[in-house]
């Protein structure tokens, strides 16, 4: 009912629009946003990764699936092939994650940046009709 008030539509109209967005794949899933610090993960870092050759991409992507501290992975253009978002408890844990990533087949280099403060954190940008 809060959404219906905000956009001046009936509750049933809002429910129908949400259902259509789910059916067409506009809404893929529902999730929660976790306060990382409340879980004990005091540190966020971004790690750029270079692969020796694109043939290593699939194996790399598969291997990081089991690394829980890597919360996002983006294949990108630029000097590095991949960008990893890491959420961990300490610099010691980050160092261990770095060692694990460097030991993966095909990884040739990394560059890590520690996040000092998150200024904005949204998961998608919805363009509103004009």
TrEMBL record:
Molecular functions per Gene Ontology? sequence-specific DNA binding
One matching Pfam family is: HTH_24
Domain of life of the organism encoding this protein:
Bacteria
Which InterPro entries does this UniProt record tie to the protein?
AsnC-type_HTH_dom, Dimeric_a/b-barrel, Tscrpt_reg_AsnC-like, Tscrpt_reg_AsnC/Lrp_C, WH-like_DNA-bd_sf, WH_DNA-bd_sf
Q: Which UniProt keywords apply?
A: DNA-binding, Transcription, Transcription regulation
Gene Ontology cellular-component annotations: cytosol
State the name under which the record lists this protein: Lrp/AsnC family transcriptional regulator
Organism per entry: Candidatus Fusicatenibacter merdavium
């Amino acid at each position: 009912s809060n959404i219906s008030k905000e956009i001046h539509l009936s509750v049933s109209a809002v429910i129908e629009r949400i259902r259509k967005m789910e059916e067409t794949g506009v809404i893929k899933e529902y999730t929660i946003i976790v306060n990382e610090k409340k879980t004990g993960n005091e540190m966020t870092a971004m790690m750029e990764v270079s692969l020796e050759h694109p043939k290593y991409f699939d194996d790399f992507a598969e291997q990081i699936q089991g690394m829980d501290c890597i919360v996002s992975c983006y294949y990108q253009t630029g000097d590095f092939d991949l960008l990893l978002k890491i959420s961990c408890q300490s610099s010691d844990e980050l160092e261990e994650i770095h060692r694990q990533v460097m030991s993966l087949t095909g990884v040739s280099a990394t560059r890590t940046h520690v996040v000092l403060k998150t200024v904005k954190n949204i998961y998608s940008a919805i363009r509103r009709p004009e």
